[in-house]
Amino acid sequence: MNSSDFPADKFLTQSLLKRQEQNAFRKLLPDNSLVDFCSNDYLGFAKSAELKNNINTEYASLTNQTNGATGSRLLAGNSDYAEELEKKTAIFHNTEAGLIYNSGYDANVGLFSALGRKGDTIIYDELIHASVHDGMRMSKATTFAFKHNNVNDLEEQLKTAQGTIYISVESIYSMDGDCAPLLEIVALCKKYTANLIVDEAHATGVTPNAGKGKVQELNLENEIFARVHTFSKALGCHGAIVLGSNLLRDFLINYSRAFIYTTALPIKSLVTINQAYLLLKQNSDAITRLNKNVSIFKNNIAKNKNIHLVKNDSPIQSIIVSGNDEVKQLAEKIKKEGYDVRAIVSPTVAKGSERLRICIHAFNTTDEIQKLCKIINTLLNN
To answer: Binning pLDDT at 50, 70 and 90, where does residue 3 land?
Structure first.
């Protein structure tokens, strides 16, 4: 049977045509040799020969090497290594316990879908990640958005919230790169007896406190109900961990479907996570270089009405270029100059807030950053 014979093809075709008409059609791109200003590999760990060597050395020393985990953690897929890694990661992030998931997406889906009961309330920042939205949809809780980083709007939502209340924010937002006002939100949680959940995906490995994240930078560990740290950005590997109390860990093992009903990460992945954390502890210089490079970028981007740079101090630097056509054309012009910068289009971001999303790395040179800024300044000021 050819694909054209399937009854669903009419729907698929119409949906894809709609994306093409919006100039929002997504496709996978091949590898390229452009200068990297688009990946989340903030410290260069994904490319690190040192990390690769450390991983291979430790993996070769283990006696229980297998190609796959062979089952879920509740069946054949658990190991002493996994549980020790969870304990060490919890200690590094100064909390009681942690539970590893196969990805940051799985962690958020597994956490929010398990927590939200009928009669409960989840209040989330309007720019929260898609994985949280999917987890909330699978829950039975009532959900409300509050305006991005607006604590006054958050309080208005809290006034009418019922049942067990959860608040969901990102410490550093994945598209705007700005930080949540965690101190003010924690104060509201105390006032309204709410439970704060912080996604630290883009803060892990980049904050000045040895990459431990914004929560620890602000000494708020004891005020946060749950934290999600992913390993796929600055740590250069894969997977994620939900951090919190021993009680939360036990609850998720029993009720989180994204944990219960999936094959566990293989031992090689766990070794990679372990070695990435060990390398992070030794690489304060890389974090310093990263933050210096962010400053170089911000200082070299022209400051005028033609360039709308979202204000933040994170490695995620976004320049708003309204319109899918406009931002995609701009990104292609920059690529032709040898720099890999990606256009983020609607519906991934709200219509009118399309942008160049520029990721700064510890391995980017001063010359590369300055040349990129010169190209952007020229293109946007012509």
So the answer is: low
